[in-house]
Queue: 4 jobs
Job 1
Amino acid sequence: MKDFKIVICGGGSTYTAGIVKDLLDQSHELKIRELWLYDIDEERQNKVAVVVQAVVAQFAPDLDVRVTTDPAEAFSGANFIMAQMRVGGLEMRVSDEVTCLKHGVVGQETCGAGGMAYGMRTIYPMCQLVDYCEEYAAPDYWIVNYSNPAAIVAKAMHKLRPNARILDICDMPVEIEARMAEILGCELDDIEVDYFGLNHFGWFTSVRCKGEDVTDKLKAHVRTYGYISEASLNDSLVKDPDWQHTFENSATISTLFQDYLPNTYYQYYLMPDSCVEYMDINNTRGMQVINGREKRMFAASEALQRGEDVDLTQFYVGVHGRFIVDVVKSLALDLRHRHLVIVPNNGIIENLSDDATVEVPAYITDRGPEPVRVGTIPRFYKGLIENQDACEGLIVEAVIEGSYQKALQAFTLNRTIPSATVAKALLDDLIEQNKGYWPELK
């Protein structure tokens, strides 16, 4: 069996330990020769690496985990690079959230102005990662990218590094599929969906469970409960207030627009007033992550270094890690598993432009994705998608050209921002907040 060198780029992420656990769970099929963590933040990565090494010691004690900030070390001969970079760290996420909320608009890391700000920080670091892989990695390397905001990053790479071996993915649709499975009382692997849109901007057109069409059954449920089972409504483990609000908004959107089932992120675009009213500028989602998951990760690292026992299962959450590992496994072993991925349109959705960056089902082979054709889509959904795709395209052009005008046009087009005057004031503030991260806009 062929073995592989796998690199996690963004090794200092609090998600890394969970991803590694999912890799080890699949090691009977996806044989790991070398596992490397790479990050530019050495101090943070070293803290997370303590937890990762504890996971590996428990489940694969013979596997040597390497930790580095040297790209030549990390990427030399690499077969698969899992990219989860967060340019500016959680501190800049919080800055984006707070700045947006001060202007009365959605403060969110991937949607609206926060997502555009994050995207503008991430484009050239992602180019650098591609260049490292071109220089050092194995000739048939694959970057499996789930760095946010995935839509903007993917569109930029299609333009700036069109020959890169990079596959862009997002775990949010899979998280929704997992909720669908819970609602239906089946396993995630039993679910197969048809879907179209952009990343964080798409619709489930049909859902099958073990081959049976359950779309109408799910629609009826989601209009009442959102993407959560009746049983789970009383489960304290899922009573995260932010997710409760998100699920409630999914019910509203499903009731208003009954053709398809929405991605949960549509709440920010179709109900921005409700989202802003709910959001707390003194307790943003980024602040919650810093005071929650990050704090727990660093505390665990310190405890392990003191020789204390730590419950590592607290870091094995959601389908985030499982999804990325499944995609890598399908690429590595030519399994042709069906996943939702982000690709250039090129006729997949017939009445959208070829250069739109769409999220659709595809069969994942060792040569890359083979997308499933969608055909034409109705005018309402086409209009939504064209507007958002234009917004994201203008952000990419603003970064490449250093164009203030195009950045302003992008902010003005975005559905989460109510007017051109608000767009300008917000953009000007974000320029100040992102000095050193964004190119100069003129």
Job 2
Amino acid sequence: MSAPHDVVIIGSGFGGIGMAIRLLRAGVRDLVVLEKAGGLGGTWRDNTYPGAACDVPSHLYSFSFERKTDWSRRFPPQEEILDYLWHCARKYEVLPRIRFGTEVTGAEWDEAESLWRVGTSKGEIAARVLVSACGQLNRPVLPEIEGRDGFQGTAFHSSRWEHGADLAGKRVAVIGTGASAIQIVPELARTAARLHVFQRSAPYVIPKPDRPYRAWERALLRTVPGVYAASRARIYAQYESRALGFVKYPKLMGAMAWRFRKRLEEQVADAELVERLRPDYPMGCKRILLSDDYYPAFGEEHVELVTEPIERVTASGVVTADGTERELDAIVYATGFASTEFLAPMRIVGRDGRELDKVWRDGGPSAHLGITVSGFPNLFLLYGPYTNLGHNSIIYMLESQFRYVVGCVAAMRRAGLDWIEVRPDVQDAFDARMQELLRATVWNSGCQSWYMTEDGRIVNNWPGFTFAYRRATRRPDPRDFLRGRNTAAA
């Protein structure tokens, strides 16, 4: 095995690329990014379905240190986001450090050498510091439906879109009504002969104020100092203000819910259909979605909303609980991701042989500031537990984490340390505080969502303002860590 690298990063989405850039700028040159796929981009590489786009405005859904003034639209489409990430990787010399087609199978802490021994599909690699940038939404979930594998038509998950399958003029089912489905349904409604949308839980869908940027606007952003920064600051403040309803005063969501109901009734003429599209839980409890063309799609005669539970899939279609079978040519599973399993299926073994998945299975996923885990020295998570948002840009949260990780690595170098590890009492206190705060949020108002584990514990979301998270991660506190040198090697 070759000499250990200073830092190994798992994943090359926004987290992995941004972390590599910040480390390189801090003088950490010996780093490697391991990517299981043949290209970078993470979720923006994988999700190429029709209509794929971001629901955060482009000026905020980008790195603060790499401004892009020529976005085509207010809300960036998938292709442009992916191009932006490739641009960043090339410009900041990350691309030569990415090992594509290298899947990480696991990692084990070598106590004697103070190293992570990382198992990959191409052999073992050693790292002094290991950073997981796998994200929360990278492992697609297919529902456990009887007969699913016996369907004889075309079937795939929305994040594994089969572009070779021509669905025009076909009988198509979309199972699921989450963030991907509300973008897919209007696109399929334009071309499918018949479209059946199977809904288990109705989402809240609010307007998406999207439009192309005009040429003069892009010129202004590019040439006039301060205009881009002002646009970014305005969008940030607008979105950050929504945290009041999510995490501080959930009753404030009532006004937004009233506007939602009014708009739903304006967009859908059929009163019975309105009732079936109306969510039965408080607004914000699940992810709020943005679209201007989702509800109008159900006004088309060939588009059907199905709310009867699915009983089974047959070779030729889907049977619902009322006994109705709908004949189909294709099924699109827009059924989400294994959001609370963070590093799975990798086997991560820390100090004294403890396995991360078993530690988290007993108490639920937990990490101090969503970044460090007791018992796992020199391991840092990006977009880990308690760092997802319901109201603002995850890129802002990631940049806070970049700074914290860089601060930890720099502190280790200055002090000549081989390892640091968050103290268990510090992590436990943080976890208890998060659970206390989460109880008062709208996410804890009675629904089941992907923010929760199976037992109902919310582990994904940050229960506060993003600027509060940035303040909490401004610099690592040495008092939070156990630390040491490898005396055996010395």
Job 3
Amino acid sequence: MSEAPVSRGVYKFAVFALAIGAFAIGVTEFATMGLLPMIAEELGITVPQAGHAVSFYAIGVVVGAPLITTIAAHMDRKLLLLCMMGLFALGNLASMLAPTAGLFNIARFVSGLPHGAYLGIGAVVAASLVPVNRRGRAMSRVMLGLTIANIFGVPFAAALGNMLGWRSAYALVAALGVLTVIMVAIAVPRVSVGAGEVPSARGEIKALGRVQIILTLVAGSVGFGGMFAVYAYITPTMTDVAGVPEVAIPWVLAVYGLGMTAGSLIAGPLVDKSIERSATGGMILSALVLAAFGAFTHIAAIAIIALFLIGISGSMITTALQMRLFRESHDAPSLSAAMNHAAFNLANALGAWLGGIVITAGLGYRAPAWVGVGLCLAGLIVISIAIFLRRGGSPDPSTRTSVET
């Protein structure tokens, strides 16, 4: 890492540059879901088939996060950030230009490859620029780009797509990627990794073989998929079932973003009190809210309120599982952080895929919500097993930290 904390001005500029990249990633991850009907119409496919693009992006994250993190473990961090964001920009440019559904899916896969590694390494770089007692705050400020993306960026991309066509949204994201490359090149100090600062790839992979880590990742991959089963098809659901005008969809997406933000604020104190209760509580709340969404989607006001609550429960789940993974994998920090992003994007792929299956089967746009309930309950079972095993067994003392449960 860098030799010493930098000046406050340099730190703020660097974090801002890194947060722009997180903002761009947040926009591209969720914007596709608000543009599916337009994408489907122009490419001559069904909405569930267009939803495959969501899954391809998520699979790109699942593949890229551990692969890039492992291969580039000793690479200069600034250079790695520039390369990843350059690849991100190219992937989104290819998405904008794709003439067929197949090429569009490939472009989305490429766009997802740098997602997890950029966010993980960007947060670590930000933390390296400040004293130890301010590193958590530095990392959270980089991640703030994701939250702001869901409140402002995704709705704006949806509105831009409605006005200028869906390709304009990917042009916007590609431009943000190029801007991030420029900003990181100017603002972020050179950060290299010394030989003794990074565990070996073999050591990190071995650490990830622990039962608690595996169960936590599986719980995230399954349980968080409930939210994506609904959100992947939120535009046609709200327009066709709830009767919301298409021009109002950006505002609906903003409601979800506000729910995520509120959930992040709520989750912090709850996780500080109990990681385990926050994880199980988030899963239960998500299942209940998804059931309400499925039952009352035809009432626009209730559907929108439920979407806000889905955002809250989603943030509770991600925060709790992130902290649980951090606690259980303190000696495998780089790869576990990457795999955490991979797990949640696997949930993205799983939810979108299963939601598309029930829609294609003729069960309608309410059906993904019930799929989501099932996924949340499955995730609840997995995390409950993990908690039971941890309390009933005798964990390796090396896995214990000062983080209370």
Job 4
Amino acid sequence: MEPFFFVFTSKWYFWILGSLVCLFLGGAVPAQQNQNLAGTALLLDVRGVIGPATSDYIQRTMAKSNTEGAALIILRMDTPGGLDTAMREIIQDVLASPVPVVGYVAPSGARAASAGTYIMYASHIAAMAPATNLGAATPVHLPMGSQPPGEATPPGEGEEAGTPPKDTLARKAINDAVAYIKGLAVQRGRNERWAEKAVREAASLSAQEALEMEVIDLIAQDIPTLLKRLDGRNVKVVGGEITLQTTDMTIIPVEPNWRDRLLAMIAHPNIAYILMLVGIYGLIFEMANPGFILPGVVGTISLLLALYAFQVLPISSAGLALMLLGITFMAAEVFVPSFGALGIGGGIAFVMGSVILLDVEAPGYQISWSLIVAAAVSSAGFLYMVLLLAARSQQRPVVSGREQMLGAVGKVTAVARDKMTVRIHGELWSAQAREPTTLGQRVRVTELEGLTLTVKPELEEDLHD
């Protein structure tokens, strides 16, 4: 046991693996005990693309506000939109929250586009800072070849009227989004007509226009101004109506914890894509070279992180299957000679799978084309290098076995009547010659029978070694 324990603990990568496991297990333990948040407002910053990390961050904070008695939740937003699944999870939490939620587009110059507009409509109170905007809520994940939202077939003209299937799918997606945002508008008493226009025509509004059209409730330059204008407002939440008392309310910023930051990092499509490639190639290298350990450890960790990211991302199973098939074919080319057929087919499958891997077109959630090309070229280059080395190895002279002895040059070390001893490659061999030879003469092997060599004298002009 002692040697095994010493080897195990002396490897630094085992310590890294153990630390990661403890880090993940530690996430299940609360970082701090519950505290009384009565009379306070929790401030959450929703910046950048809305994804799984954002919904987890908001859901965790809302659960905290419910258990610890916060009086208000402020979502300070500056977002271009994001994933539909993450947006709907956030809206469900907002609609079910017994604590009033304020959607606040700030600071000046910020926006709440696409998914951010839906969240603003779902919030109990919608506010904007000057010089901000919201809108452009048209679903971007539409079938290829469909008509733009403004040119869609008018409602009432269905498939029977000759509407192409792709246009029908586009109309279904748009109509679903319209019904969803109009339902939020009715519940919060906001402008339904403009909500529909934001979806069908990708319309946008400035803060002043949004206030005039009753899309938002107020304009506030900053958080203190926002609290002053919220004071005394009646808000309907789950469980009844609340009168806000925001004068002298304490603001507590809530930062994303390590789990949210880790999820936000690995859930980025490019990062998840790289982690998957590192994981797969690490395991392939470990299986091809057993005992290295480090590639296997790094590959396993990377692959697990990639699978976790794919769990929360809208992954196309066909794209993932094509990628795995392509990598398998390219790896098989190394072991199964197919004159490049497996390698070329694997490269094509790999690129096609990478292109359709993510079943989403939300901003910030596409795999970079440059990354796909770089990965494909690197894989093809590696495959070409392996095939080139294999081809060169076939052309090299044999360095062991019977074939290696034929043509080898040695020196006569002893001569008897019909036998002699020669030294070849540092070894002494019994030999016979059909021509006269002398002690110390250089000879070349012409035949090998058992352990006896047949040699002939090597003339000076014929020496090659």
